[in-house]
Design goal:
By secondary structure, this protein is α+β, with helices and mostly antiparallel strands. It has 3 domains: about 35 residues; about 70 residues, no CATH class; about 170 residues, Cupredoxins -  blue copper proteins (Immunoglobulin-like). The chain is about 45% helix and about 20% strand. The protein is built from 7 helices and 10 strands. A 5-stranded mixed β-sheet has the order 3-2-1-5-8. A 5-stranded mixed β-sheet has the order 4-10-9-6-7. Strand 1 and strand 2 form a beta hairpin. The protein starts with a helix and ends with a helix. About 20% of the residues are buried. The protein binds copper (II) ion. The site of copper (II) ion has 7 residues, from loops.
């Protein structure tokens, strides 16, 4: 093995001594730095143009997902470099020029045992933290608050089950109604509001087709299926506005049912509850899916094509 690594190092060293290789190396380094800079800019609660990497974690689940993802990247990187090194070695050392008479070796017990056992060990090493994380995500701690999320074509309904049935619809803000600072295709009229630090149990259901309630910063993605009540949870660690989208292709306006969750201090949440109960008691379920379809169609968005009309019929 040591001999093999020595040869690989020698081959790479020889290659780097050439001026052209040095120029290519410099270019690769610059690209890597650029990618790193772009990645650093992507740490926010919503997607960004040219984003690389994931959105910043805002819950303990997402923090663990991030850490696990980064661990896997290191393992993948090492495996890739090792395989690449072997391939370069074979290409150089056993080229027809240098090695005109091919070897007739067909079995090597030690190597065969190694290439079976080593991958198994790597997979087990990955599986253990993976299962731990899966159970951590799956088991809902004692909840401070329960929110029922219902997916419709093409909007969400939020119901605070333990707040006297407070319930409202959350619709996308149309392009023509956007106010300065609001995000196109992401902002909604009525966001889901939750207190910072509270454990929120989320129950997800659907009324027509399968949707999926997905907030990347929370590490939460739960399918909204008719006749099923799926459960998940999150605990937002810092105040802020978090954006997500339906991530189950659910029909023509799939791209127009974003999710906004606003995490506020407990005191502000209690104040919001009082106001919200008044506001939504007056007009329960004010917006309907059909008015949304009409509005989007009137806008002339891609979704307003003939396909949209066909889908409604
Ligand atoms: Cu959907």
């Amino acid at each position: 093995m040591a001999g093999l690594m020595k040869s690989v190092i020698q081959v790479v060293g020889d290659a780097l001594r050439r001026p052209q290789a040095r120029r290519i190396g410099l270019a690769l380094l610059l690209v890597a730095l650029g990618v790193a800079a772009l990645g650093a800019g992507a740490w926010a609660n919503e997607p960004h143009p040219w984003q690389l990497g994931m959105q910043a974690p805002a819950t303990p689940v997402k923090e663990r997902l991030h850490a696990f993802h980064n661990e896997l990247l290191i393992i993948i990187f090492c495996i890739s470099i090792f395989v690449l090194g072997l391939m370069v070695y074979v290409i150089v050392r056993f080229s027809a020029k240098r090695h005109p008479v091919p070897t007739r070796t067909s079995h090597n017990t030690v190597i065969e045992v190694l290439w079976t056992v080593v991958p198994v060990v790597i997979l087990v090493a990955i599986a253990i933290p993976s299962f731990k994380l899966m159970y951590y995500m799956d088991e809902i701690p004692k909840a401070d608050l329960t929110v029922k999320v219902t997916g419709h074509q093409w909007y969400w309904t939020y119901e605070y089950s333990d707040q006297a049935g407070l319930s409202f619809d959350s619709n996308i803000i149309q392009d023509k109604d956007l106010k300065p600072g609001q995000k196109r295709l992401l902002d909604v009229d009525n966001p889901l509001v939750v207190p910072v630090g509270a454990t929120v149990r989320v129950q997800v259901a659907g009324t027509d087709v399968i949707h999926s309630w997905y907030v990347p910063s929370f590490g939460v993605q739960e399918y909204a299926v008719v006749g099923r009540l799926n459960e998940t949870w999150f605990q937002v660690e810092r105040p802020g506005t978090y954006y997500g989208e339906c991530n189950q292709i659910c029909g023509v306006n799939h791209a127009f049912m974003p999710i906004v969750v606003t995490a506020v201090a407990k005191g502000d949440f209690d104040k919001w509850l009082v106001d919200a109960k008044k506001k939504f008691a007056a007009a329960p379920g004010a917006a309907s899916g059909n008015t949304l379809v009409a509005a989007v169609a009137a806008d002339g968005k891609p979704a307003a094509s003939d396909a949209a009309a066909g889908n409604r019929e």
